[in-house]
Amino acid sequence: MVFAHDTEIALIAAAALINTDGSDGELLGDVAALDAFFAEQGWTGRHERTDAELADVRALRPRLRELWHAEEDRVVGIVNQLLRAAQALPQLVKHDGYAYHLHATPSDAPLADRMAVEAAMAFVDVVRSNELSRLRVCAYPGCGDVFVDLSKNRSKRFCDNSCGNKAAVGAYRARKAAAGGADG
Ligand SMILES: [Zn+2]
Ligand SMILES: [Zn+2]
User: Fold this and answer.
1) pLDDT (tens digit per residue) in 46-59
2) Half-sphere exposure of residue 110, counting CA atoms within 13 Å on the CB side?
3) Is the whole-model pTM more than 0.70?
4) Which residues are 102's β-sheet partners?
5) How buried is residue 15: exposed, middle or buried, by Cβ count under 10 Å (0-12/13-18/19+)?
6) Which of 5, 26, 132, 157 lies at a CB distance of 3.0 to 4.6 Å from 139, suitable for a disulfide?
7) Residue 80: CB partners within 8 Å, gap ≥ 6?
């Protein structure tokens, strides 16, 4: 494990949220889509199912995406700002069958605030461990999805959205073409 368990989950969840506005277009098009994302990602606590909540969650994505691209000092600025804005107060909690983990917002805080603070708390760990290089953008041309490389040898280059396969197929075709073989 590269980071604490809840940090890894939070980073994966943040990437998933960012990628709802990525290469596949808008995946949070309405309240029902957010509802499905909420369940699929294992979110708990307050969930209003309103257009206002949806708008807040959607507005959070570009800010979180910036964490993937920014230099360390800028990341720190964003993280501190997110924590201050939501008046984050770290507490160890246990709920819904999960072992003790950190929450820095109460479970009745707005969903977008909790998503923001959970991502920010995870980035606190990443920055302290000097591991920002593990936050990557998919290397497949035109993808642009973000992911966190939790591999031992830091070798992950593609998102999990079939880009690794597409890249392998492309490389195979290129080798074949270079070798002058007929391409079936
Ligand atoms: Zn929790
Ligand atoms: Zn990709």
Assistant:
1) 999 999 999 999 99
2) 15
3) yes
4) 92
5) buried
6) 157
7) none
